[in-house]
Amino acid sequence: MHIAVCMKQVPDSAQIRVHPVTNTIMRQGVPTIINPYDLFALEEALRLRDKFGGEVTVLTMGPPMAEDSLRKALTFGADRAVLLTDRFFAGSDTLATSFALSAALEKIAAEFGETPIVFTGKQTIDGDTAQVGPGIAKRLGLNQLTYVSRIAEVDQAGQTITVERRAEGGVQLLQTRLPVLITMLEGTNEIRRGSLADAYRAASAKLVSWNAADAGIVDLAKCGLRGSPTIVKKVFAPQARAEAARMLAVEDGAEAVMTEIFVRQPALEAELMRFASGQ
Amino acid sequence: MSDTSRASTKKALPEHFKAYKHVWVAVELEHGVVHPVSFELLGEGRKLADKRGVDLAGVVMGGDEASVLAAAQECFEYGADLVYTVTDKVLADYRNETATKALTDLVNSYKPEILLLGATNLGRDLAGSVATTLRTGLTADSTGLEIDDEGSLAATRPTFGGSLLCTIMTLNFRPQMATVRPRVMAMPARQPGRVGRIVEHPLGLAEDEVVTKVLKFIADRASNKAQLAYADIVVAGGLGLRSAENFQLVKSLAEVLGAEYGGSRPLVQKGWITAERQIGQTGKTIRPKLYIAAGISGAIQHRVGVEGADLIVAINTDPNAQIFQFAHLGIVADAIEFLPRLTEAFRSYLSVNRLAG
Amino acid sequence: MIEEKFDAIVVGAGASGNACAYTMAKLGLKVLQLERGEYPGSKNVQGAILYADALEKIIPDFRDDAPLERHIVEQRQWTMTDSAHVGMHFRSEEFNEDRPNRYTIVRAQFDKWFSRKVREAGVTLLCETTVTELLRNNSGAVIGVRTDRADGVAFANIVVLAEGVNGLVGQRAGLRDVVTPESVALAVKEMHFLPREVIEERFNLKGNEGVVIEAMGTITKGMTGTAFLYTNAESISVGIGCLVSDFQGTGQTPYGLLEAFKNHPSIKSLLAGSECKEYAAHLIPEGGYKAIPQLYGDGWLVVGDAGQFVNAVHREGSNLAMTTGRIAGETIAWLKVRRDAATAANLSEYQRRLDASFVMKDLKKYKNIPDFLHKSGAHLFGLYPRLIAQAAQTWFRVDGKDKRAKESEIIKSFTRSRSLSGLLGDAFKLARAWR
Ligand SMILES: Cc1cc2nc3c(=O)[nH]c(=O)nc-3n(C[C@H](O)[C@H](O)[C@H](O)COP(=O)(O)OP(=O)(O)OC[C@H]3O[C@@H](n4cnc5c(N)ncnc54)[C@H](O)[C@@H]3O)c2cc1C
Ligand SMILES: Cc1cc2nc3c(=O)[nH]c(=O)nc-3n(C[C@H](O)[C@H](O)[C@H](O)COP(=O)(O)OP(=O)(O)OC[C@H]3O[C@@H](n4cnc5c(N)ncnc54)[C@H](O)[C@@H]3O)c2cc1C
Ligand SMILES: Nc1ncnc2c1ncn2[C@@H]1O[C@H](COP(=O)(O)O)[C@@H](O)[C@H]1O
Q1: Residue C421 lies in a domain
Q2: How many domains does chain C have?
Q3: CB atoms within 10 A of CB A53
Q4: Which of the 8 DSSP states describes residue C316?
Q5: Over the stretch B214-263, which tens digit does the pLDDT of each residue have?
Q6: Of B334, C124, C134, C384, which residue has the fewest beta carbons closer than 10 angstroms?
Q7: Interval between CA A126 and ligand 3 midpoint (Å)
Q8: How far off is chain C from A230, nearest CA to CA, in Å?
């Protein structure tokens, strides 16, 4: 089975600094990482490949330096890495991103074989929208399985897949037909460590690099800023809370803290009382 | 290349979108219950609609007449002028396919200018498909909604892990879509008995045309999973607690308060708590009425997960800890020593007053 | 297992490993480099001052694209007490030369750049791969390494240990002793971010000019050690370090020292308003010449910190690391050209070349300094700074006292605290160690 995994290289948000004067992101020295959510997708894909045979192709749209992340995916054991890179993609919002990725996924299927399963992460830590996966599914007409916590069964002969999906207030056991797009929930698995041979192969592997034309994209108006219906009007720093924290001293005692909590949240006191008497 | 510049930075709404009017909220109805985020959105939608001088509509999609009508009535009481309903057995359980069809059909038929959804698993699953189908813009996980001078929706959301905020607009496409996380918006006051108009719409899809089947639904109550995200009170601990044994102090306080407990990421990595109890950017976003954080430094990734709490109480030995920058109430104290005292304070207060009451 | 056999395997992608791997690859050798960090530099800590000369000999045009923060135009040498500092400042416009001699760098970025050069030269680098063990043949010669990855074995004609100060692989293999607490310093360092303009204003800098502050005195609480503050483009590196043996039993922590140093009135205003984003602790080999272990054997050799190549007096480390790496690389390539095997006998050429270089000459010159510092630490890092500051106080305060009286007061204060013979003795010992 040939499986595609969409994976994004993101700045490590833990290390981002905001310039105190200009309120712009200071990118200098901020390392980039594979979007942590995408590793759950990658591991799940690798497990399916190990079980059913076949290949895993990872796809990233991003600047040339995104190659680092793709190589890393190869050290984990992915078989092929495709970098979709073109200045026309700059400034893409989710709609434009899903357009470009869909085109590349179609091209991947044509070049390297159909992909009955396409994975994305749940969301990215920079864009943070969780919309690119559903966007791709819609564009490619794939059955959409989001927030998947477990892949229960893949029936290759019957072309069906059964998964557990995190829903509001519970877990759905869903069955649908291949091809599907799965967005994998976090914490569902742990990315493996590739062998030394995997690492060696990854270090010297040749990556597939496509620009818009290579990926068969003709309509550049659907890409990048031009293809993005949303525009970013302004970027600004979060305001500190208008009111600073009220600091209580230890000497004030735990009762003082409790009282202050009830003063600020009167409804809570009643609720707690109800809870206490309900016990 | 005729024009590589941005097509949409200026408002130039195409003629065919000019008919789009009114503010909609897609209501989440699952297993007969409306998700509270839908009411929060109605409250916010009301303000937007009033500012635009248009109607506020709820969209209720469900499997049976009774729950759909009950939900519609709730929508009125939370401020909707009208409610579009789609009632069909096929819609009993949420599925992307059916809900996307129902909602896109409604949009194409009745043309709203603004469409809001909850940034829940359901809302995000649905919003992405609908926006892509309609080829319109969507601002995910918004934390603030405004109408700008030109009458467009200005949606503000965090970016770069909460380090910055940005305001995003969809100027020349309709509807303007946004999702909003639960508990970000205030719950509006309910106006019992308030009524409105119901517009019924057919789904036009039979079960055997739907590819995806729900084989089973395992409700959380049955499966004993942490209810952190929805809890009213959350007590959490961080590395400041120093050991897994001391984490028991957090659990004890939680127990007395009938609260859920959780922790910062390092605790999960150390195996003191399970992953589903991690709070923050890569864990759960919580919006409790009361959040008590003990021995947590308040790193940005933690902050973004708890900022929506109504009241944040922080216990930390370091008076300069970041958490005091966003807590409402701070105690500079050794949590290992202070937590038991706080637990005892609540315990005795609650028992005394219960006896008295 | 990697099927291919390499001319050389380099353990570590720090300054010395990169220099060595680069040199060998440029001379046509097939090199595998293994690094345990997530990326080169992720685990490395340095102040950091880069000395241009050592790198220039490896990559002559490094200035074109290396991530250099600022070139140094001013050196401040401070002797500190708890409330004062006495300083010598040297600033010269001549340091604004075409090819400046010293730069501040941020190791994480610099190492990444260096590593890219290394890979472009043809070296295969595998990160997140820790070498756990050296593989030997029946006669005890090293023939390859084992790593912590599955099937993690690789073979080569020679293994270069560029694993830094801890050097666990070499220790485990019995190639050298465990480093002693007397011969390593523990240093902690923080990066404080400030806007470029603020740094330039505070330190009186323009463009890419930079300042170095090196400090000693009571800030190390009588322990043998020094502190530093370097200006980067948009951040300030500040750190302090003392001998590990001195920390033992004092109850002092490196972090406590750093906090105190940062809060010193002379330092505090320089850091005001900054945001600390990085904290790191690292060891520095300070044993000097006498601590240098056996540097080569059948199928292996040692470069950089792993070989104790640090000149503590002049705070030089990375340049010695690069130079030993380069010389090792050249030696290995030279053996290959001559079709000589990497035996201990043939590798003694490495030692010969080192002895002829500034590395060994400098280390030899200071071979007694570590002993001296160790023995006279309390005076050097407590008493003398206090006396010097007091002298300056007396001297600069205008209070109606005549200058001759001031002079004799100063001299008395010195002899009162430490006998004349003690003073002379210290001076003599220092001079002898220095020679
Ligand atoms: C991509 C990414 C995602 C992340 N996601 C998350 C996430 O979802 N959630 C999360 O929490 N973190 C997350 N982190 C980690 C985050 O950056 C912080 O490292 C983490 O939140 C720190 O946890 P802590 O506050 O428990 O520990 P520390 O930062 O070590 O803080 C401990 C605190 O306890 C205080 N303390 C010490 N002793 C006591 C005592 N006796 N009594 C009271 N106080 C005491 C200290 O003063 C200190 O403030 C993420 C990091 C990255 C890079
Ligand atoms: C606080 C501080 C300030 C300093 N300031 C300066 C300065 O201003 N100027 C200066 O010239 N020098 C300075 N030094 C010294 C300088 O940093 C070192 O001398 C230099 O980095 C040594 O280079 P190296 O390659 O030998 O070791 P390192 O740079 O330490 O590199 C060793 C590498 O090997 C890797 N490694 C270790 N074990 C294994 C293993 N088993 N398998 C795989 N990989 C492994 C490590 O991850 C690391 O990347 C400073 C040092 C410190 C700690
Ligand atoms: N530029 C990109 N390249 C590849 N995959 C992406 C890209 N952007 C988003 N994705 C995928 O879409 C998922 C959701 O992203 P987002 O909608 O930005 O939260 C991510 O987890 C990735 O799997």
Answers
A1: yes
A2: 3
A3: 9
A4: B
A5: 999 998 765 455 678 778 999 999 999 999 999 999 999 999 999 999 99
A6: B334
A7: 10
A8: 32
The full set of domains in chain A, from first to last, is 2-227 (3.40.50.620), 242-279 (no CATH)
Tens digits of residue pLDDT in C4-14: 999 999 999 99
* pLDDT of A126: 83
Residue for token pair 């609908």: B130
Touch C-B: 3+ C-beta pairs under 8 A: no
pLDDT over 60 (residue B5):
no
Enumerate domains of chain B plus CATH numbers: 4-209 (3.40.50.620), 225-356 (3.40.50.1220)
* CA distance to partner chain B, nearest, from residue A78 (Å): 24
Alpha carbon distance B240, B324 (integer Å): 15
Is C75 inside any structural domain? no
What's the complex ipTM?
A: 0.79
Decide: C277 and C191 in contact? Cβ < 8 Å: yes
B53 in the Ramachandran plot: left (φ > 0), alpha (ψ -120 to 50) or beta?
left
Cis peptide upstream of residue C272 (ω within 30 degrees of 0) = no
Quick: pLDDT tens for A134-163: 999 999 999 999 999 999 999 999 999 999
Shared domain for C281 and C295, answered yes or no, is no
Domain that includes residue C164, residue range: 5-69+101-179+290-365
Amino acid identity of residue B174, one-letter, is R
Same domain, C56 and C162: yes
Quick check: is C257 in a domain? yes
The residue with greater pLDDT, C374 or C253, is: C253
- Give the residue, B85 or A238, on which the prediction is more confident: B85
Indicate if C168 and C298 belong to the same structural domain: yes
Ligand 2 binding pocket (C-beta < 6 A) is C 11-17, 34-37, 43-49, 51, 130-131, 162-164, 168-169, 187, 189, 239, 241, 282, 284, 304-306, 310, 315-319, 321
Give A80's strand partners.
A57
- pLDDT at residue A29, rounded to an integer: 64
Q: Does A226 touch chain C (CB under 8 A)?
A: no
| pLDDT confidence of residue B2 | 36
Which ligand gives the minimal distance to the CA of B161?
A: 1
User: Which of C285, C302, C324 delimits the end of a domain?
Assistant: C285
pTM for the model: 0.81
Long-range contacts from C309-312, C-beta under 8 angstroms, 24+ separation:
C309/C16, C309/C285, C309/C359, C309/C363, C310/C284, C310/C285, C310/C286, C311/C362, C311/C363, C311/C366, C312/C185, C312/C284, C312/C286, C312/C288, C312/C366, C312/C369, C312/C370
In total, chain C counts a number of residues equal to 435
| pLDDT reported for residue B63 | 96
**Residue A202: closest CA among chain C residues belongs to which residue?**
C126
Nearest ligand to the CA atom of C50? 2
Whether residues C359 and C374 share a domain: the answer is no
Measured CB to CB, residues of chain C less than 8 Å from chain A are 1-2, 32, 39, 106, 108-109, 124-126, 128-129, 147, 149-154, 193, 195, 197, 233-234, 273, 275, 277
Last residue of a domain, one of C241, C268, C285: C285
Instruction: Decide if C39 and A31 are in contact by the 8 Å CB cutoff.
Output: yes
Between CA C435 and CA C430 the distance in angstroms is: 9
Give the domain CATH number at C43.
3.50.50.60
How many percent of chain C have pLDDT more than 90? 68
Atom of ligand 3 nearest to the CA of A124: 19
Quick one: closest CA in C to A196, which residue?
C152
Both C261 and C330 in one domain: the answer is no
* Ligand 1 mutation target, pool B250, B264, B279, B339, most atoms within 8 A of CB: B264
What's the average model confidence in pLDDT over C189-218?
94
In a domain, C77, yes or no: no
Q: To the nearest whole angstrom, how far is the Cα of C150 from the nearest Cα of chain A?
A: 5
- Per-residue pLDDT at B354: 65
Where residue B305 falls among pLDDT bands split at 50, 70, 90? confident
Which atom of ligand 1 sits closest to the CA of residue B263? 11
Q: Count of CB atoms within 10 A of residue B229's CB?
A: 22
Higher pLDDT, B188 or C422: B188
Contact in structure between B199 and B83 (CB atoms under 8 Å) = yes
Q: What is the mean pLDDT of residues B92-114?
A: 97
**Do C302 and C153 share a structural domain?**
yes
What CATH number should be reported for the domain holding residue C276? 3.30.9.90
Same domain, C63 and C141: yes
Centre of ligand 2 from the C-alpha of residue C105, in Å: 14
Task: Please report the atom of ligand 1 found closest to the CA of residue B238.
Answer: 26
Higher pLDDT, A228 or A14: A228
